[in-house]
Amino acid sequence: MQIFLTGATGYIGSSVLETLLRAGHEVTALIRDPEKAELISRRGVHPVIGDLGKPSSYAAAAEACDAIVHTARAGSSRAQKIDRLAVDTVLVAATNRAASGKPAAVVYTSGVWVLGDTAVPVAEDAALAPTPLVAWRPEHERIVLEAGRAGAPRTVVVRPGIVYGGTRGIIADLLKDAANGLVRVIGDGKNHWPCVYSRDLADLYLRVATNPDASGVFHANDEADECVGDIVDSIARHARMRPDVRHVPLPEARAKMGPYADALALDQRVRSPRARALGWSPSLHSVAGNVARLLEEFRTRREAA
Ligand SMILES: NC(=O)c1ccc[n+]([C@@H]2O[C@H](COP(=O)([O-])OP(=O)(O)OC[C@H]3O[C@@H](n4cnc5c(N)ncnc54)[C@H](OP(=O)(O)O)[C@@H]3O)[C@@H](O)[C@H]2O)c1
Q1: What digits encode the pLDDT tens for the residues 135-163?
Q2: Which of 40, 156, 228, 282 could form a disulfide linkage to 107, CB 3.0–4.6 angstroms apart?
Q3: Whole-number pLDDT of residue 119
Q4: Residues 29, 91: contact at Cβ < 8 Å?
Q5: CA distance 80 to 56
Q6: How much is the average pLDDT of 108-135?
Q7: Which of 2, 20, 6, 5 is nearest to 64 (CA)?
Q8: Which of 71, 83, 162 to probe ligand 1 with, by most ligand atoms within 8 A of CB?
Q9: Residues 59-83, mean pLDDT to the nearest whole number
Q10: Over the stretch 202-251, which tens digit does the pLDDT of each residue have?
Q11: CA angle 42–43–46, rounded 5-degree value
């Protein structure tokens, strides 16, 4: 298949790119930076130099592909506005393509933070109660799902948990903090984080992008129901020198980090039955149980960079 990918240089997008290429798909990637475009073209990817905020730079390239996978995220102050522009652009591209009788799909990246705190484990049909950081996301999900209501184009929303693996993301930051001797935990650490291994997440993107029957919302998490305290404790035990762990009250964290603190303090247990119904089965089942492996992967990737 020909797949148009945004965010190919990002944490999730780079993992999705690797998986799509390994599966033999032709990828066209929207890239902002010409140097990154040059690097990515050496891997057989067709780069389109442009910006999410400038639809004319990528609308035609997106319309030429069988599926559009949107994983890019603009910087926080403009995230909502640019994401809305990108959503509108890729939906028009896919709708035009579908109108000419060609296969067309849009895969949109949201996240589990739209669910808010969950008292019991929740699946894809749960009511949304987004934490303030992502208050705008449900509307973008709704627009994407509504555009697919008639079946053409096919539309998908993926809600990843907190991604682990490699050198980027929240869990890799904890590994770095532990190596530097101090890990900060917001609150008492008894809250649960739904997490997902980056390669497992990429496998779900491959499935939803290429399976003509996949549409609607898909959660992506390993269902380990891990407490932040247990994740941090395991990371601390694997560090060369045991780091200090400092518990920061939520109001203090919020004063420094803004609404990101509330997102990290969420207590969430999430299930992914719709993803599993597609045959998706995560290869890793927890962060705490895989810290040695994650550290190895972190070091190998950092040396290779
Ligand atoms: N990471 C997680 O744990 C996680 C969990 C759940 C949901 N999510 C969601 O998944 C999405 C991707 O997250 P991520 O962690 O992969 O982000 P990331 O590592 O920050 O990657 C962002 C990507 O977007 C690209 N980008 C930024 N602004 C752009 C613009 N104006 N035009 C074109 N491309 C642009 C970046 O390109 P450059 O290389 O040019 O900067 C990069 O490729 C986000 O919507 C995030 O909320 C992430």
Answers
A1: 999 999 999 999 999 889 999 999 999 99
A2: 156
A3: 84
A4: no
A5: 19
A6: 97
A7: 2
A8: 71
A9: 95
A10: 999 999 999 999 999 999 999 999 999 999 999 999 999 999 999 999 99
A11: 80
How high is the mean pLDDT of the chain?
A: 97
Question: With contact defined as beta carbons under 8 Å apart, do 88 and 68 qualify?
Answer: no
Q: Are strands 216-220 and 182-186 parallel, antiparallel or unpaired?
A: unpaired
Specify the 3-state DSSP secondary structure of 26: strand
Cβ(80) – ligand 1 distance below 6 Å: no
Number of H helices, E strands in the chain: 12, 13
Determine whether the shortest distance from the Cβ of 32 to ligand 1 is under 6 A.
yes
* Residue with CA closest to ligand 1 atom 44: 73
Per the document, the length of the chain is: 305
The structure tokens listed for 206 are 């491959």
Q: Is 172 in contact with 298 (CB distance < 8 Å)?
A: yes
Q: Is any atom of ligand 1 closer than 6 Å to the C-beta of 155?
A: no
Integer angstrom CA distances of residue 192 from 145, 178, 248: 28, 20, 16
- Between the CA of 73 and the centroid of ligand 1 the distance, in Å, is 4
CATH, domain range 2-164+196-221+270-283? 3.40.50.720
How far is Cα 99 from Cα 89, in angstroms, rounded to an integer? 15
Q: Please indicate whether residue 52, judged by its CB atom, sits closer than 6 Å to ligand 1.
A: yes
pLDDT score, position 116: 98
Residue 3 CA, ligand 1 centroid: distance in Å: 18
- The arithmetic mean of pLDDT across residues 83-110, rounded, is 97
C-beta of 71 in contact with ligand 1 (< 6 A): yes
If one counts every other C-beta atom within 10 angstroms of the C-beta of residue 174, the result is 24
Find the 237 Cα to ligand 1 centroid distance in Å. 31
